[in-house]
Amino acid sequence: MSKVPKTLETLCINTIRGLSIDGVQAANSGHPGLPLGAAAMAYTIWTKHLKHDPSDPKWFNRDRFILSAGHGSMLLYSLLHLTGYDLTIEDLRNFRQWSSKTPGHPENTITPGVEMATGPLGQGISTAVGIALAERFLAAKYNKKDLSVVDHYTYGICSDGDLMEGVSNEACSLAGHLGLGKLIFLYDDNKITIDGGTDRAFTEDVEARLVAQGWHTQRVDGNDVDAIDAAIEVAKAETAKPSLIFCRTTIGYGSPNKAGTSKVHGAPLGEEELKLTKKNLGLPENESFYVNSEAEKVFRSAVKAGADNNKAWNDLFAEYQKAYPEEAAELTLAISGEMPAGLWSGCPTFPEKIASRSASGKVLNAIAAKLPTLLGGTADLAESNMTDMHGLGLQSKDEPTGRNIAYGIREHAMGAIMNGINIHGGCRSFGGTFMVFSDYCRPAVRLAALMHQPTVFVFTHDSIGLGEDGPTHQPIEHLVSMRAIPNLNVMRPADGNETAACWKIALDSKGTPSVLALSRQALASLTSDDIEKHPAGKGAYILSDADSGAPRLVIIATGSEVEPALVAKKLLEQEGIATRVVNMPSTFLFESQSKGYQSHVLPRNVPTVSVEAGSTLGWAKYAGASVGIDHFGASAPAGTLMKEFGFTAENIAKVARRLFQEHE
Amino acid sequence: MSKVPKTLETLCINTIRGLSIDGVQAANSGHPGLPLGAAAMAYTIWTKHLKHDPSDPKWFNRDRFILSAGHGSMLLYSLLHLTGYDLTIEDLRNFRQWSSKTPGHPENTITPGVEMATGPLGQGISTAVGIALAERFLAAKYNKKDLSVVDHYTYGICSDGDLMEGVSNEACSLAGHLGLGKLIFLYDDNKITIDGGTDRAFTEDVEARLVAQGWHTQRVDGNDVDAIDAAIEVAKAETAKPSLIFCRTTIGYGSPNKAGTSKVHGAPLGEEELKLTKKNLGLPENESFYVNSEAEKVFRSAVKAGADNNKAWNDLFAEYQKAYPEEAAELTLAISGEMPAGLWSGCPTFPEKIASRSASGKVLNAIAAKLPTLLGGTADLAESNMTDMHGLGLQSKDEPTGRNIAYGIREHAMGAIMNGINIHGGCRSFGGTFMVFSDYCRPAVRLAALMHQPTVFVFTHDSIGLGEDGPTHQPIEHLVSMRAIPNLNVMRPADGNETAACWKIALDSKGTPSVLALSRQALASLTSDDIEKHPAGKGAYILSDADSGAPRLVIIATGSEVEPALVAKKLLEQEGIATRVVNMPSTFLFESQSKGYQSHVLPRNVPTVSVEAGSTLGWAKYAGASVGIDHFGASAPAGTLMKEFGFTAENIAKVARRLFQEHE
């Protein structure tokens, strides 16, 4: 882009400001403070650095931009409109309205050019770590001399709140450790949060902390485009460390009566102050959503530049395809999100008794070689979660192609980074921890679901069956509380074969994250060894029908409780009670089956008992009685706990018998 | 304590080690590495600094000790046994066994002398911040010249994992900001985690980070008792900053073949290595749970010292009572956990339409003066959560009696610190954030329930009714997922009066934490204005019975959905369908009522519909049909969302009518 005169530059920045505050005012709801304060920062990134193609928002080699401070969404929407994305002034006018393309916080599933959903603070910058990691991995793996087919930056803007949140502390520590040099964030350092000055709660030396965590830092005036521009150049030159540029700004810049105060954080300016602000900024005070045509030209140059860059990259990729057809095909397939043909042909089956976590580890290692961009990891529980992909390296600055990520004891950052790896595209991610610690990363699990990312959460030690570690480590409420998250497929396989089948479902998914709830303890082999056509795909199925074929009682069980349910069935059949056992690895998948299939598996008016070593909450939908555990666990060997808490065939039979008798 | 000769000191430390590894070996499960490595640190704190009374574990002015690295539980159990708590060698032998007093991770509800449940990493040190804060608050508020009735330290031991977790980053940042000078933690800096060396994932400069966060730091050899002792003295002398003492240790110290490796972190040594270790440590290698009588004497001196300290404090308190009878009575009542008489006499009632969050704020401000040790706060949403206690000060170094805590945008630390304030005793705590961000502090909510702490979580903006902020901010699954946590009372009041009643229930609770799920939007006044005998205490009750008195249809509703449910009832009654509306603010309380009451409110065989602007999961227990929302929300004005997603009287009536007709 040719040099833009200073006055025009100012007009450009103020145009962003004007659109943003008009959007908030039209909605009578939203956050004007950040767009006013950070407009110059955003302008500098978007017009001087960001390589993107407004006509092709998903262009693979684009620089990524993450507005971690998602409440400043109008800033992003203004930029998207101005630079030529499919987002009209009318869309801006409909900010925060029903079915608009401009929701209150950015959503990647709604607005072209939005990379991820932000708003829950700390998630943006943490997820960006995953995006930058995926870029480095793919670059290291696929780029060849003179043919850098993956080569982009990950930019972002974050706020005080982002840097206070624990998840970002975790993610920043890991990003520094990993030395992600192409991650460049600008910090909207405005010293103001919703409740007042940051001196009320946040007086740490943020810069010193980031330096301690391995980041490169700089300080600039957040309204000085040249200084910001130069700082970004320096940040780019620092290739061994992620960069945080402290941009000293004024929240609500330009608002004569509200700038620099928390009043301007999260409420519209009001009609009067809006006018005063526009006047102050040299914008026509009586015009709404004003875009000066000269300013527009500056922004719109992104369209041509983007198309050129996109084309140049496509030419480069064509060259690459010619020179490295195998790698090109591999990368192309990975970007598509499709699984390679024959992925499951070599997958082991499990005729033996095996813990589902162990089966999971074997499955992973069987398919890892065929999925060259699958990145795994664990929050420091590799031997417990069985998540290690043997011999595939540990991700680090020195080994950027390493496919195992040591997340450290940082479950929340793990969740966010896993999402980022998927969001980048070209990679798939999974990560493990104990199921009870799913609580630590729950906001990231929710965002995966909201963002339609197929992240795979490997949550092992899925019940009191983990034994001696006791109630702090024993999930009780976790299965139901994760099932309650929309668009999350919680799968609890009953044996090794079903574990493999659930892995297949998880990897075949394109827009739904999966939880694999896996046992610590060994499970008998009970289900089909046809991994590719396994009935687990239906969510629930008849595992063992009544001997007579006409059940008068149904027992639904999941995971480790399927085996005692089968034994209970035998006891009941011996008493002449025709009993069916339904294995239900996934309520999510079962709910998406036809009503016909559902009532075939669970016939109406047949008394039904559920068995799961977790909260009974939620089971009343399917069952008239439940064997479960509605209190915290205890520390003792697993066998003792299962017996004491009623997960024996005898007790299951007893509960089922009682229900059956009540029903007769 | 008189000076202990070095050889005896070493024997004492090795006695801790021996007991700990014997416990793990007997259980064939547990973590020997930390007790072996950190025994000298623990010995130094417990014999040279910790003021405690083994015969009276709840002595109010004791120093608190938190083993944040709860997996090293045998270290703590060994200390408790050796210093004379009611924990026998037999108890140690039963480590991790059914119904023993020595569970896998420490639990305050089971073992005398254990202050809190630890194990989920980061919680201990973060909760300790709350404990230290409560001490400083009470000291500043109640101590008089020469009569320091509250005056103790909060000590702890933390691990790599504790310091990696985001929650501790948040809590440490806040502790530094608040300048909690009597918080002294020893960091078991052993460079090893479960998966290997900390260089795999944790290479930040931890010391520089803590210094940036406002901590005082020192470095010592973790086996050098004199150096540790001196460092603790220095830490005590630093009264304006919390202290972290980096103790360089060797995990599994003394184990000739496993020390310094991750192998010794979380698995028993094995019989052979156990013997070799004992031999190496100068312990009789064939004796289990060996306690040398001279060593025992050293530890047991805590009993006499504790009794003396306890008595001295009681004498001091008697003096205080004489000199300051009002303050003494106030503090005594606060320590008892009882609410003052007449607390609710001046509580406002709400005949007007009001948001439950606003009513909550008014209730709080009406009772705050009568509850002088109630500490509140918010994760930077005071104006949204309405949690500010007006004019009662902002907690800070300069104003240690301030009763409002600005937690910053740190929900997780807020939860842990709130728990710590309660655990300390003498104070009660509440804190607010948006309900959707309950996910951010969920591990602390769970721990409150597990630890039987009556923490009050004020979660406002409790549904899509928050409007424009959109799906990242709209809770869907949160009500059910919190209801699934054992021993957590989730209350969703229908109006202002019921909000006051729920506050009363929350504050009257002694062993159950509460969630107040409060609306952003205004709610009509619908329920009794008798706050003290409000039917909310039953969890659910008939708010409006069928006009005939004989319902043929029941509508259960909660919170903001009670009003449209009442309108739906009118529509149905007009059609001749006798309809009862049940208001169910708390499933938790309802479940504890008699079966008779339950079936009185919800008669069997009468078709029942539930209405709640959240996930329908869980409602099948009470209802044959549910009006709810099983997908993410959207960004639009609240009224639009409520209409689009079916929370109108018309739609409720439609769903109810359909169920009624199916049933006829």
State the main characteristics.
5-stranded parallel sheet; homodimer; alpha/beta; 41% helix
The helical percent of chain A reads: 40-55%
Number of helices of chain A: 23
| Overall strand count of chain A | 20
**Oligomeric state of the chains?**
homodimer
State the distance separating the first and last CA atoms of chain A.
Answer: 81 Å
What structural class should be given to the helix and strand makeup of chain A? alpha/beta
If interface size is counted as residues with C-beta under 8 Å from the partner's C-beta, which chains form the largest one? A-B, 106 and 105 residues
Q: Can you list the strand order of the major beta sheet of chain A? A: 10-9-11-12-14-13
Please state the CA-atom Rg of chain A, rounded to the nearest Å: 27 Å
The fraction of residues in strands of chain A falls at: 5-15%
Report on the biggest sheet of chain A: 6 strands, parallel
Uncertain residue segments of chain A? none
Shape of chain A: elongated
The average pLDDT value of chain A, as a whole number, equals: 97
Task: Give the helix/strand layout.
Two copies of one chain form a homodimer.
Chain A: H1 6-27, H2 33-48, E1 64-67, H3 73-83, H4 89-93, H5 123-142, E2 154-158, H6 160-164, H7 166-178, E3 183-189, E4 192-193, E5 196-197, H8 206-212, E6 216-221, H9 225-237, E7 243-248, H10 271-281, H11 293-323, H12 325-336, E8 354-355, H13 356-367, E9 374-378, H14 382-385, E10 404-406, H15 411-424, E11 428-434, H16 442-450, E12 456-460, H17 478-483, E13 489-491, H18 496-508, E14 514-518, E15 522-523, E16 541-544, E17 553-557, H19 562-574, E18 579-583, H20 587-591, H21 595-601, E19 608-611, E20 625-627, H22 638-644, H23 649-663
Parallel strand pairs in A: 1-2, 2-3, 3-7, 6-7, 9-10, 9-11, 11-12, 12-14, 13-14, 17-18, 17-19, 19-20
Antiparallel strand pairs in A: 4-5, 8-15, 16-18
